[in-house]
Amino acid sequence: MTTPETRPAPELLAALAPLLAAESDAEAPAAGVEPSDLEQAVWLRLLEQLQQTGTAPERPAEWLRRAVRAEARRARRTSDRERPYRDEPAHDPESSGHDGSPERSLLDAEGRRTLRAAVTRTPGRCPRVLTAMLAPEDLTYREIAGELGISQGSLGPMRSRCLGCLRRMLAAEVPAPDRRGRVR
Predict the structure, then answer these.
(1) How far apart are CA 56 and CA 73, in angstroms?
(2) Exposure on the CB side of residue 28, measured as CA atoms within 13 A
(3) Are 118 and 108 in contact (CB under 8 A)?
(4) Burial environment of residue 123 by CB neighbours within 10 A (0 to 12, 13 to 18, 19 or more)
(5) Rounded distance, CA 38 to CA 52, Å?
(6) What one-character DSSP code corresponds to residue 122?
(7) Which of 64, 70, 75, 177 could cross-link with 31 by S-S, CB 3.0 to 4.6 Å?
(8) How far, in Å, CA of 11 to CA of 15, rounded?
(9) Phi, psi of 126 (to 5 degrees)
(10) How far is the C-alpha of 8 from the C-alpha of 140, rounded, in Å?
(11) Contact between residue 20 and residue 43 where contact means Cβ atoms under 8 Å apart
(12) Residue 127: CA atoms inside 13 Å, Cβ hemisphere, count?
């Protein structure tokens, strides 16, 4: 009987396919990529190693697990640094996990309405500061400070105070998000 370490490349690839599929399915959601993209990257890495060294990894299953995790980390770092072009809509990682159901859309809209209503009830200059921070244009601190007529240096502390006030107001109004997989 041959072990995975001594199998020729086609047999090794066939033996590792189910493990790679399972590992990719497990790691892909956290990395923000499709499982098939993760699988493809690991297959490429394995084939490059087979071509360079002429031999399979000593412990293929362990190597495969490490390679999947390394590719998932690389994908996370890449997606953290990527920015959409100005004419493309930004990818919202929160919305990608939702099924687009009417119930989810209604709950999301209700959450936004509750947030906007709470912003208007905050004291002092907080409504203007928070409204500027929530603007869809994604203004910079310099632009927000100019719009509000305050110094850029005082915007950070003011934002912190306003967010703290808003956080306290919303704590009583908006329930905490459900934990995944836990029944309450």
Answers:
(1) 23
(2) 18
(3) no
(4) exposed
(5) 21
(6) S
(7) 75
(8) 6
(9) -60, -40
(10) 57
(11) yes
(12) 8
CB 101 within 8 A of CB 93: no
Do residues 170 and 114 make contact, with C-beta atoms less than 8 angstroms apart? yes
The helix/strand/coil state of 43 is helix
pTM attached to this predicted model: 0.42
Query: Over the stretch 11-32, which tens digit does the pLDDT of each residue have?
Result: 777 888 898 888 888 888 877 7
State the Cα–Cα distance between residues 43 and 64, nearest whole angstrom.
Answer: 9
**CA distances (Å), origin 71, targets 24, 59, 178, 180:** 10, 18, 30, 25
Length of the chain: 184
Residues 6+ apart with CB under 8 A from 168: none
CB neighbours of 25 closer than 8 A, spacing ≥ 6? 35
